[in-house]
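Example record

The entry below shows one chain as it appears in the dataset: sequence first, then structure tokens.
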Amino acid sequence: MEVNNLLKSELTLPAESIENVIVKYPKKKIIEGMISESQFNPFKIQISQRDMKDMKKKFHDIDFENALEIAIYFYGGKISVHKDSKYTD
């Protein structure tokens, strides 16, 4: 997936603005949670999965190279969906 400026700007908003992030990968793998860490250079976003009890698997770095779709749910109801140009649901 291409990491464009809009995706970067939305994912790096203050955590209080973003309610949930859902990342879809190949083979129907879905990671869902809240942003726990963001880094600009190199660009990196880490998600904390709410329902994951295993601490080794609780935190997930978004793999932008393999991600097919990233949906960002904002408080207030706004939803922003970014898809890989080659992905069809």
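Notes for this example: The radius of gyration is 12 Å. The beta strands are 18-24, 30-39, 44-48, 59-61, 69-74, 79-83.
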